[in-house]
UniProtKB/TrEMBL annotation:
Stored InterPro entries: DapB_C (IPR022663), DapB_N (IPR000846), DapB_N_CS (IPR022664), DHDPR_bac (IPR023940), NAD(P)-bd_dom_sf (IPR036291)
Catalytic activity entry: (S)-2,3,4,5-tetrahydrodipicolinate + NADP(+) + H2O = (2S,4S)-4-hydroxy-2,3,4,5-tetrahydrodipicolinate + NADPH + H(+); (S)-2,3,4,5-tetrahydrodipicolinate + NAD(+) + H2O = (2S,4S)-4-hydroxy-2,3,4,5-tetrahydrodipicolinate + NADH + H(+)
Entry-linked SUPFAM superfamilies: Glyceraldehyde-3-phosphate dehydrogenase-like, C-terminal domain, NAD(P)-binding Rossmann-fold domains
Residue runs in coiled coils: none
Residues the record lists as binding (S)-2,3,4,5-tetrahydrodipicolinate: 134, 143-144
Protein's UniProt keywords contain Cytoplasm: yes
Main location: cytoplasm
Record-annotated Dihydrodipicolinate reductase C-terminal domain positions: 112-238
Family: Belongs to the DapB family.
UniProt GO molecular function: 4-hydroxy-tetrahydrodipicolinate reductase; NAD binding; NADP binding; oxidoreductase activity, acting on CH or CH2 groups, NAD or NADP as acceptor
Residue ranges of the TM segments: none
Pathway connected to this protein: Amino-acid biosynthesis; L-lysine biosynthesis via DAP pathway; (S)-tetrahydrodipicolinate from L-aspartate: step 4/4
Protein name according to UniProt: 4-hydroxy-tetrahydrodipicolinate reductase
Length: 247
């Protein structure tokens, strides 16, 4: 049995993770901690891997504390930057037996859509991303959309493509945030959960890739997949569930 502790256990996603860990045949719940709880309760003696689902403002400190405790970490909190990742890599240098996995999104459908988008990117002149979430989400654009934009931009660069055509005469305006040259639009609407569209365009044609997660349960197979792979890459930070899929 894989012993799993959950940090952020009283949050919407954390509580769902707790239930998933309890119900999976190969995992058991070790500790369920939330804001204000002492993370030093989590040790290699009682925990094989920690799932961290909190908020961007707290996640970095939580991950650093858990790395220092010597336990593997699976992170579902978004808002990660290159600077934050660098901090985690520095911490892992002193704990080479520990691994950290960060998922911009745990939904298999979304991970596949991102992979398909990177494949399609080199065939289309234009591309934009629209991400749509519930209004309780604290970050915009979503970490998933940012990760998708980077993947598309990298594919376009490898293909030797130039900037996306855009003659809009505004300074930002309603054109969305530009992430690595890709326009990303964020919608926050009551009734939505987590949705992403990637729109590709050429003269006379359009391709739309869309992934919808209607319920938090859609993320649990991905969370458990990451838990089962925890510790495979000691001393490193792994980003993206695609690393554990046969793509």
């Amino acid at each position: 049995m894989i012993r799993v502790s959950v940090v952020g256990a009283k949050g919407r996603m954390g509580a769902t993770v707790v239930d998933a860990v309890k119900n999976a045949p190969d995992t058991e719940l070790a500790k369920a901690l939330d804001a204000g709880d002492d993370l030093t309760q989590i040790t290699p003696e009682n925990t094989d891997v920690v799932v961290e689902f909190t908020v961007p403002a707290a996640s970095l400190d939580n991950v650093l504390a858990l790395v220092n405790q010597g336990v593997n970490v699976v992170v579902g909190t978004t808002g990660w930057t290159d600077e934050k990742l660098a901090r985690v890599k520095e911490a892992l240098a002193s704990h080479p037996d520990v691994s950290v996995f960060i998922a911009p999104n745990f939904a298999i459908s979304t991970v596949l859509a991102e992979n398909f988008a990177a494949q399609a990117a080199k065939y289309f002149e234009s591309v934009e991303i629209v991400e749509m979430h519930h209004p309780n989400k604290v970050d915009a654009p979503s970490g998933t959309a940012i990760h998708t934009a980077h993947a598309i931009a990298a594919a376009r660069k490898d293909a030797g493509m130039g900037p996306i055509p855009d003659n809009t005469q505004t300074d930002g305006g309603s054109r969305g945030q530009v992430v690595d040259g890709i326009h990303v639009h964020a919608v926050r609407l009551r009734g939505l959960n987590a949705h992403e569209e990637v729109l590709f365009g050429n003269p006379g044609e359009q391709l739309v890739l869309r992934a919808d997660s209607f319920d938090r349960s859609s993320f649990m197979p991905g969370v458990l997949l990451a838990v089962r792979h925890a510790g495979e890459n000691p001393g490193t930070v792994t980003v993206g569930l695609d690393n554990y899929l046969d793509l």
